[in-house]
Write a structure and sequence with these properties.
This protein has 156 residues and is of the alpha+beta class. It is built from three helices and eleven strands; from the N terminus they run ααβββαββββββββ.
Length: 156
């Protein structure tokens, strides 16, 4: 049996995986490890600076914390969200926005819960691709939203 071809494929696959890992790790802050949570966050937060801190269960940006979403009943009821924050679940990932700025998004699909627990009367705006307002949420507000197609949001 000729082992040259399988060995060559194994070497090529190993190089590809190592290259992908090296490229992904290079995007992370020094001393951190890329997690699937960070990869999801990076896919969804198009064009934003790299995270400030990455752990296995949390990715922290300036004005946003990304964590795994709650499972089960908690995922379908009011989403726990600190006072002054706008929180939502997209693709099984919880996004907790607490800085007033426009966030450019990509790959937001499906439905998920949201909680606008900002100062009463604060309006969060969700935008279409062309920049027009798709819908708004005035604090306090909670429910389920359809995320596609949301291209950007401004929590305040």
């Amino acid at each position: 049996m000729n082992l040259a071809k399988p060995a060559a494929l194994l070497i090529a696959a190993t190089a590809l995986v190592a290259g992908s890992t090296a490229a992904a790790t290079a995007a992370a802050p020094a001393g951190t490890r890329v997690t699937s949570l960070q990869q999801t966050a990076d896919q969804v937060l198009a064009g934003h600076p790299k995270p400030l801190k990455v752990t296995a269960d949390q990715v922290r940006y300036d004005g946003l914390t990304v964590t795994a979403a709650p499972k089960g009943r908690a995922a379908t009821k009011d989403l726990a969200c600190g006072y002054g924050h706008l929180c939502m679940v997209v693709k099984g990932t919880k996004f907790d926005f607490y800085k007033c700025q426009t966030w450019t998004l990509s790959n937001w699909t499906g439905d998920g819960p949201y909680t606008n627990n900002q100062t009463p009367g604060t309006v969060a705006r969700f935008y279409n691709r062309d920049g027009s307002v798709r819908w708004t949420s005035t604090a306090y507000d909670a429910g389920t939203a359809t995320w596609d197609p949301i291209w950007s949001l401004r929590p305040c």
